[in-house]
């Protein structure tokens, strides 16, 4: 993290603004003294506001994004949005960091949820709350459990865009064959372990889940346990990782036990690999994002009946899930007209019809509750009834700092350290407590380094 850039950006921005005022003044004089040069003022005023939208969606997601922009451009000729794929979330955020101190960056950028703290501290954004207050935009029309994640210190900094949570996927046919109730998926760690044992046969594990830091974050929330201190980084900036607390040790101990008993397989960090094994019926249960539901349904190809359930958690614990995905930020180094145009586009994306079409095209949650009343989404829910599990799980989540999600400026790095710790344990190279102690210390050190770069 470049502390100098974070601290000095305000000064640079002031100098840049002053320079732009001088340039603007010079331009005005030139136009006044040269009436024959250039197009008439009326024609210039009619030029549409051009917006650049950086995003990280590929495949079906990119196709859907291009369609959203095309539809908006057709209905709003005064504003033209150009979506540009910038690579995966990490790549896009790194490109944004590289653009700091210049106007080469986007007007709007899609940033994953764990980039939230950095985006706020960067000083690069205009919180959407400013436009919400000015327009008296009704936030009650949006999903409260989604809005909670992005509301920090009483204001919404970004508009949620693509939102998901993790659920349990299971093979109902394999459940029947193993003597399990296909209509009663496991709800607790203990029940999941028992089901995995029943599904295992001929030395082959019955389930698998990817070594994914996002899952560990969700397991904490599902126990209503904060991931970092200071109210999960929401009452004030986090200073300590709580990864090595009881919630983490209990989860990794459970995970390791199933590996040792050969009821759970370790297929690495990629959910694509666990999904492939599941759709090929090599395993009977897995965890994955709700955004992957359609892919998993289509991957099963009618070969088996697909079941879905809530994310398992320890018995007698309460909590819920944290939303994943990304949100849209408006950059503050653009003109007031461009920022206002960006807000108009973001408002458009939040309308029920657009949200319904987006959900159908991608599998992400609609952020607007009225989207569920749109016929296209009703039809999709009928076609994919498993998606109701995701909606019910979102609505069943408790309102707490744990389920609101952790905030720390080094979250991307922290997630990688968590995955390394899980690998260490599953490979028999350390105990859950030892591995999580080491990772927690590394994360806490990184938080301290980051916090020292942020201008108070």
Task: Give an overview of the whole structure.
This protein has 456 residues and is α/β, with parallel strands linked by helices. It is 51% helix and 13% strand. It is built from 21 helices and 13 strands. The strands form three sheets. Strands 1, 2, 3, 4, 7 and 13 form a six-stranded mixed sheet that branches. Strand 5 and strand 6 form a beta hairpin. It is globular. The N terminus is likely disordered.
Number of helices: 21
Average pLDDT across residues? 90
> Unreliable segments (pLDDT under 50, ≥5 consecutive)?
1-39
> How many angstroms does the end-to-end distance come to?
16 Å
- The backbone outline, from C-alpha atoms, is globular
Specify Rg, calculated over alpha carbons: 24 Å
What does the largest sheet look like? Answer: 6 strands, mixed
Q: Which structural category fits the helices and strands?
A: alpha/beta
Strand composition percent = 5-15%
| Helix residue percentage | 40-55%
Number of E-type strands: 13
